[in-house]
Amino acid sequence: xxxxxxEKGNLSIHTENIFPIIKKFLYSDHEIFxxxxxxxxxxxxQKIKKLASYGEYNGELGDLKVVVKLDKDAxxxxxxxxxxxxxxxxxxxxxxxxxxxGATEFVEQYKDKGEGDKGIIGHFGLGFYSAYMVAxxxxxxxxxxxxxAEAVRWECDGSTExxxxxxxxxxxGTDIILHIAADSEEFLDEHRLRGILEKYGKFLPIxxxxxxxxxxxxxxxxxxxxxxxxxxxxxxxxxxLYPFGEDPLFWIHLNxxxxxxxxxxxxxxxxxxxxxxxxxxxxxxSRQVFIxxxxxxxxxxxxxxxxxxxxxxxxxxxxxxxxxxxxxxxxKINGYITRxxxxxxxxxxxxxxxxxxxxxxxIGLFVKYGIISxxxxxxxxxxxxxxKNTEGKFFTFEEYRExxxxxxxxxxxxxxxLYTTDEKKQDAFIQSAKKRSYDVLVMNTVIDxxxxxxxxxxxxxxxxxxxxxxxxxxxxxxxxxxxxxLSSDDQEKVxxxxxxxxxxxxxxxxxxxxxxxxLPVVITFPEFMRxxxxxxxxxxQRSMFGDMPLMYxxxxxxxxxxxxxxxxxxxxxxxxxxxxxxxxxxxxSQGLLSGNDLTRFIQRTVSTL
Length: 609
Hints:
CATH superfamily of the largest domain: Histidine kinase-like ATPase, C-terminal domain
Strand order of the largest sheet: 5-4-3-6-2-1-7-8
Largest sheet: 8 strands, mixed
Distance between the termini: 111 Å
Number of domains: 4
Helix content: 25-40%
């Protein structure tokens, strides 16, 4: 049996295994090759600017730009810059040693100057090799900025062999020439390349020229000071991001450098009363390079309906810079954005309440969603979240408490907030409430059923009930009870008459003493049933009650003259005819009368006119 000898050594990484990994697995989308190579060219341009500012390069900078050229006949794509360039030794160091990042070394070398990292995009050193995802052969023609440097040509066909040779090149800088492989000829299309450049390089800090046109804005507004910008600047930038979008309501300029670096502009768009069809998303950038528009970890859920841009070099990305990696900074950034949005909304509310109220129908979805999902946001939002009543008046939570406490405090000393989800359909119930000087809130957005639940949990001694969920005396229970005009025998009599005409096994009929001017018959559904149905509808779920007929209560007003007329009549036919008319009228007010029943009701009503 062979014995095992203890030993130590170094793992060897063979470069012949690296290229297949890069081509197949490192980048999820092959189009990213252009982002990486253009970013490298931008880095080269930024480096020469920095060296000039440090006094280490005294030559003419010239017009720094990156030029992308397509040659369909030669099947090449060339990315050129007039940046820092490379010597033969630097090519051996940065290109031949896979994953040695020149950007990282540059940052380290100049970190003592305070801004070594600022503006330098690359860090992993693998970006150049993304070229081999689409190219069968790659050439580098480069000349260093260093005095007396000779131009160099490097070529490699994707194997472990390369060739370096001298070449003539008049100006400093680098040309990367990609000889496109047969399976990647889709990239030999002008529109395809332009689309990729505009997607990833729209705001790169150095001009990007393609087909003799500059395709980017090197100085987007998030890189500028808010003090130097006007409303027109912000609106123009919004149009740049979303050419077909309606003007936003307002915006928030983000700018923080501790404990992380973050800049950006978030816009509050005008929203319909839903969460669907919001195609525009917040765009995430890292040093002005587009990364993704999937920002769920960085931006709180309730703010993902916002539009705009976030740019941070401190957001952790995977090695291909294609998506986020979770770490502590992400949570800090998430919390900062939440706080910044809440502070901005509170500022607008305090400085321009009238304007804030006019916008609240549009921004209410954001605010309510935030209250439901984020306790820290709620702590601030409770001071500027508004409630609107059927008169169109707005109240903060505390203002509304004061507004209704005299009339709508029940026998248990709880405030009863009445609300409507449909002012037209529930008008009869709203009018009844107004007769008692009760106030009714409008809660008709897709999120309000969840919002109501959140309010009841967060606010003390508050009960929220839909105005048609029960008779008013039961919605706002008081110590004093009305007496019934009808005797107990008469009450039982009218109850049996209505049981005979209801023809519903799910109707529970009661006789109650209500004010004379209340409706003669009131049909209501329990609040919990209403709310569960609304919540599930807003979530796109099937009702928990399925196809079961809903239970409802039929309350007969024993003090109403028409109910008294039924009790006093000796004719069963007259009793049933009037009861049927009143019952159908109550069904109609709840939207429960349709088809043949509705037709017969209209015919009976017309015949009595």
